Amino acid sequence: MKLLHSLWISALLLVTLCKGAKGEVNPYEELRALKSEFVAVKAFSILRIDMDLHEADSVLKNIEFIHKLAKEKEDKNLISVYYEMLGHYFSLRYDRVNSLATMNHEKAVQFAQDNALGEQLFRQNFSFGNYYYTYFKYADAYRYFRQSLSLLEKLDESRVAHVWQYYITLSRYFFDIKEYDMASQLLEKALVYNNKLAPRELFDIINTLGLIALNTGKTDEALEYFKKVLEKSNAVLDSAWMGIAYGNMGNVYAQKHDVNKALSYFELDYKYNSQASGDLISGLISLKKIAEIQFQQREFAKALVNIDIYLSKMEKKPIRYESLVEAYDLKARLLDTLAIEEGQLSTLKEATKYNRLLATLHSSSSIELAKLEDEKSNYDQFYRESRQYKRLSILLVITLGIAVSVLLVVLYKKSKRGTQNLEVVKNDVLEEEEEYCPLIILSDKRFHTEDSHRSVQISLELRQLLGGNLMNNRNWEKFKLAYINSFPCFFSDLLQRYPELTDSDLRLLALINLNLSNKEVADKLSVSLDGVKKAKQRLKKKLSDHIVYN
């Protein structure tokens, strides 16, 4: 649910205009005096205001100041922020996911990673995820949000400016994808900073906890949360949040089938949030519910007035399509019941239009949901394997020690045997190497060659694509096509011999075939050095099992 920023934005606009009256000063000039950890948040707020005040070209020119300031201060953090602001600029300008915004967010992440900027890498992964989240690309957002959480676990939270705000946004995302346990954990982490939270941040946290309880059938617990929001918002005379609390209390009573109580709370929400300082969306949602109850109670004329107000004021955005379809359908039934012919045809046309848009949205949502489930499954598998490796680490060290000891004893005994026996052993080893060729590939970086120190000849296009992040699906598809041009039978031969290989396995083998070191592979795949080693170990086992059982 959106919070109100109108007064805050108006004040900032006034300050900016006053500065403009004194002379042309780049709005990002005030970043000069800020510490690195505060720069990104401040720069984004400046960008939003600049977009409201100036033409797009002028805004883009202003952003260049950040790059100049980075060079002047020799601050690498500012370079990442510069790319991030370009990403935000293009997403705000076109109001959708687009290649320019995506490219600059990728650059921000890559630069932070290449320069080992820990806090900035967390910020840029979060920012990239939030970019996708804003435009309902939940699967893409999942990957970057999860990465940002993993990075945050390794950081000192005290060095992350306003860390609770990241927790609040992440909790909303996990609430939206119905991972309620994760959302609750993040909200509890945000509450640790209770003494630093702005009042509305606190209201938002408590309210979301209430929504989680309501969505999981804990209506009494939900009601207590919403009452707490009402009490705290009333104490600071925040009428918008008072209305939101009333509306959610109405939802609780509606779920309990107490229609009269629900109606009274929905009316309070609309009363508070239909004012200029209110949260209009919350008020209109309650107004629609009032109209639905009035229709059930056969107060048709009142219901028609309220649904007309709702339709005239509600934003016509994808997130509202389902609600708009329901509203137009209700209006059509009201007009028919009241025998009002005027407006029936136009209402049905609008209902049909939004039904079509909703069908298209549901189709894309189904694809997005499938992608999200796949992304979550991959993460869960990785998480389980990581925990398993941690639990077995001590056992592996002990086992390795024993194995080394046994090997030394065996080698000592074999050294006492004659040259003939030694040659037999060598021949056996060579035969074993031929049989288990894939394992040797992964251990010494060779593939389809006897020479591990060969120089690999690849096309200019492939060399350029190696500079990108291959974990990005778009980059990987381009890379794969260029790779096939250089190594036509590489992927087909592998899949014919090992059909169980996944896309991730092929990506790893392709980089190994280019004679890249573990560190270089880690850079291209945006994982740790240990992550590459573990991936190789898993691939070793997969190929070994194939040879044994096939």
UniProtKB/TrEMBL annotation:
Checking InterPro entries in the record gives: Sig_transdc_resp-reg_C-effctor (IPR016032), TPR-like_helical_dom_sf (IPR011990), TPR_rpt (IPR019734), WH-like_DNA-bd_sf (IPR036388)
What keywords are assigned to this protein? Membrane, Repeat, TPR repeat, Transmembrane, Transmembrane helix
Give the transmembrane ranges. 392-412
Q: Does the keyword Transport apply?
A: no
Q: Which PROSITE patterns match?
A: TPR
Coiled coil (residue ranges): none
Top-level taxon of the source organism: Bacteria
From the UniProt record, list the TPR repeat ranges.
203-236
A Pfam family name for this chain?
TPR_12
Gene3D superfamilies linked: Tetratricopeptide repeat domain, Winged helix-like DNA-binding domain superfamily/Winged helix DNA-binding domain
Q: Which SMART domains match?
A: TPR
- Its recorded name reads Tetratricopeptide repeat protein
Source species, please?
Answer: Sphingobacterium tabacisoli
